[in-house]
Amino acid sequence: MFKAVFTETLDEIRQGVMSKDSLFDAMAGENSTSTVAIRWLAWFLNVFGHYLLWSPVIALFKWIPFVGWLFAYVISLVACIFSCVWGTMIHLLVMTVAWIVYRPLFGLLLLCGVAACVGVMFFVKPKEGDVPADEAAAAPVTK
User: Fold this and answer.
1) Confidence of residue 25 (pLDDT cuts 50, 70, 90)
2) CA distance 58 to 52
3) In the prediction, which pLDDT does 86 show?
């Protein structure tokens, strides 16, 4: 009859005498700690997985004689930076969708932050007076 009236049950056993408030406080603390740990682990695995997608390209560049190790190092550095930025964006986007479902106001605020990051990545352009280094080197000097 208990399960028919109360659909949720609490399956937690602790040794010693605890009040219900201290039990729920301890369980909430453990839950928040594991949530933070799982979020950081998910971010790390996301970034690491995107880095591993570049490993065949890095391995191909290692085959080039004399300078292959340098090319592989540069490409692995670029892949690491790209994976960090891209993995963080994907991680924040997934968290945003989850937060919109569970806490809409905070989720929409986080979505605005993600949109701002995407906007900065795609729409920030150099000033009109700035000349890229490769064009400046190719331009003839006239006096």
Assistant:
1) confident
2) 10
3) 87
CA dihedral (17, 19, 22, 27) positive or negative: positive
Query: Sorting pLDDT into bands at 50, 70 and 90, what band is 135?
Result: low
Q: pTM for the full model?
A: 0.67
Write the DSSP assignment of the chain as a string of letters. -HHHH-S-------SS---HHHHHHHHHHHHHHHHHHHHHHHHHHHHHHHHHTTHHHHHHHTTSTTTHHHHHHHHHHHHHHHHHHHHHHHHHHHHHHHHHHH-HHHHHHHHHHHHHHHHHHHH----TT---HHHHHHSPP--
Tokens found for residue 23: 């039990």
Residue type, 16: G
Count CA atoms closer than 13 A to 49's CA, side-chain side: 10
CA distance 40 to 32: 12
Q: Is pLDDT at 94 greater than 80 in this prediction?
A: yes
Cβ atoms of 86 and 50 closer than 8 Å = yes
Number of neighbouring beta carbons within 10 Å of residue 24 = 13
Say how far apart CA 78 and CA 114 lie, in whole Å: 22
